[in-house]
Each structure stands twice: as structure tokens, then as C-alpha cells.
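Methods, example record. To illustrate the input and output format used throughout this study, we show the complete record for Aspartate aminotransferase family protein. The sequence lines were provided to the predictor; the line carrying C-alpha cells was produced by it.
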Amino acid sequence: ELLTKTNFDELSNLDKKHIIHPVAVPKVHASVGPKIIFSEGKGVYVKDVHNRSYIDGVSMLWNVNVGHGRKELADVAHEQMMKMAYSSTFYGYGNEPAIRLAEKIASITPGDLNTIFYTSGGSESNDTAFKLSRFYWEQKGFKNKRKIISLRRGYHGVTVSAQRATGIDAFRNFSGSSDPDILNAKAHLTECELGDKSHPEFSGCIRSIIESEGAEHVAAVILEPIQGAGGVHLPPEGYLKAVRKLCDEFNILLIADEVICGFGRTGELFGVNNWEVVPDLMSIAKGITSGYSHLGGVVMNNRVADVIKEYDDVLPHGFTYSGHPTACAVGLKNIEIIENERLVENAHQMGAELEKGFNYLNEKHEIFTNQRNVGLLAGFDLMKDPDHNIPFEQSKQAAVSVVDECYKRGLLIRCFDFEPGMNIIAVAPPLTITKQEIEKTISILDDALASFS
Ligand code: PLP
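The corresponding predicted structure is encoded as:
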């Protein structure tokens, strides 16, 4: 039932009083309260308690891949909860949904990524991937292979090690936390990674870090196939293959963070499939359940799994919700929906429609520039004068304003402005989106851009 205005005010006051929100400004929130209080969702649309409707242009946190309000997922959760909502996977206990989902994931991930360690989300997956990489080398007799190299602008989450791997300074440095063995490299320098030492940017690339640290100290490289929360940055052609080659050359594991890219977002089931690269470990979360339950995992290849499977003592790692039966049942049904409704193909086709829409916006709006997309992972920049590469002054808050204009017109999108002059906007709707819904999204963006001056 629809909430009344009084209820909204009451909820807003309670929220202000009792909740600190992630990635929000606490002082502003404590005085103005929640911007939106959501009440329901269906397909690509969500509603707030005032019954206002919005297109969910970033699938909430890039995760609601199959769209909102899917009864099949509610039904399967209900059914599993009635049978047994939760059981542990510690001490070797099993449950059918976790086992079936593990088999399914092994069958859809590339190469011989055949074994999973379950977590409850992306950050936990990345911390787990780091621990398992270091543990792998330790078991192989290389105790010093501990360093992890990640990329600037990469986002890997907020647990201590994932936070340090994140290459966005505000996140990386928050609360002064540290995992000193995690190093940030410059992103997307294909020639440098291939060995061009005369390149002006060579110092600080992955290869130069490996050379200065010594490969005998480096456990793994982690990267997102396409950087998401750092502002939707596509790798140049050949980059992922170059990094795979580099890792092989120096005997270093490659971890692909597929938390955003995985499960169809890019028009391929996994982001790395776009470049036919197979990592040694893959972090997954978000789209594995489309947000209907919280679940993540690290999928590893036989090389890594075989070494871990030889370990003859208790593995002291795991989360209460590792292999959560209800979450896994939801995950299985979610993958079935992605397959049955051919959502990977739809992401590819609708990505092409989105690109057409961006072409139109690019023609029409002077400030619209640098459009990019792979499937339904898309972004563009706003610049004062793109022809001369002149950004907006910081005080202009261009991306924030355009996002706000979209919000007023019923479209939720997201912007990134964590560096001076950066005005990036991301668009990543549910994979179920139709051509008409893409057109509506573009039309709102068109109006919002026109209203900004
Ligand atoms: N990795 C990537 C690529 C992400 O985008 C995110 C979240 O946005 C994470 C990891 C962290 O996942 P979680 O928020 O589920 O811990």
C-alpha cells in the first residue's frame, strides 16, 4: 500500500537518525535525509513511496541484470526457505543449491575455471582471491610471492585488501587502512606491458612494477575486464591479452574481477570473453543473483584448485554465508532466466541501440563526448569544449547537474567526479531493456543535456 506523505516524513526522520549511508555525504544526509525511498520495481522501472516512477538506468548498483519484480526468483527463494533457508558450508557440510550452482558456474565460465569458493559479495570475493593466490604460492614453496598488482581507476570493493587494490584514492585511503603488499599500476598501457621500455609512460606500468619488485615477490595481477566504478573505461584492443602474456612470462596469477562485467552485462556472459582471455581466478558477485540475494564467489582454474585440494589441514577461511542455500537457489534460477530469455544476446543488441542513441546525443550536444560501451556497460564524458579537450571548472558540477535533471525526468543514472575536472556519466540498465525503453532513456538524457548550460 502506498505510503502517505506523513509516512515519508516519518521514515525520512528515522533514516536520518539511525542510518549512516554508504557512499553518501553524512552531514548532508543527516540534515536532508534520503533522496528517494524506494517502494517497488518491475522490469527496468522502479517506484518511490510517492509513486513516482523511474527508469533504473544503472540497474541500481550495476547488478539487477534480469530486472526488478521477477516472481520466479521470489518463488525459488520461498521454496528453498521453506525447505531450509540456511545451512552452513563450514566443516565440509554441503547443500544441493550450492553444489548445483557450482557445477553450473563451472560449465559457463571460460577455460578450466571449474572450482568455486563462495562468498557473500564482491569485496569478499576479491579479498578471498588475494588470500587464495598467496596461499597457492605458499603451497608451491614460494612464500615471498605475496604482492598483488592492481590498476589505477580500478574498483574492487571496500574490505581491507579490496580497498587497497582499488585505484580510486578516496576509497583506497579511507580510514588509513593498509595491506602494504598491494600496489597500484597505471592502467591500459598495452605497449608498455608488451615490453616497450622507451615508452614515456613505462614507469609505473604493471611490467615495470614486476621488474622493480621482482617477480619472485608478486602473487597476482587483478583487473576488471572493463573498469566500472572508476568511470567505465574500456581497455584498448590487445590490452587484456598483453597482461595475460605478461603474467605467464613472469609466472604470476591473473585475477579477473567480473563483479560488474559478469553474467551478461557486456553482451558476453563474462567480460573476458570479449577478448578471449582466460584468467586463473575470477571474482564474481552482483549479477550472479541480479541482487535478489547476496552472493559472490571466486572461481579458480584447475592449476590453482588442484594445489589447494592437496592441502592436508583445515583451511582457515570462509564466511557464514559462503554457499548460502537460498542465495544459491536464487543464483541458479537467475542464470536460467539469463539463458532462457537470451539476455546476453539482448545486452549485445540493446548495446547497439544505446550506441545509436549516444551517436545522436553526440551530434546534438556540444558537451557530450567520449561515448563508449560494450553491450550494456556504457558511459560518456561531459566537457566544456571537447574539441579542445577543455574540461568544466569543478564548480560547474556538470555531471551532477545532468544526473539531477535526469532524476527529475524519471531516469536514474550515475556520475563520477572524484577527480578535478572529471565529469563521467554511466548508463547500465537491466539486460531485459527493450528498444522503446532505450529510446525513452535517450530522450530523457537529451532533455537533461539541453536543460544544462
Ligand atoms: N568489484 C567490482 C568490479 C565492483 O564493481 C564492486 C562493487 O561495485 C566490487 C568489486 C565490490 O562488491 P561488493 O560491493 O559486493 O562488496
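Annotations derived from this record:
The mean pLDDT is 97.
Residues 61, 121-123, 126, 155-157, 224, 228-229, 257, 259-260, 285 surround pyridoxal-5'-phosphate (CB under 6 Å).
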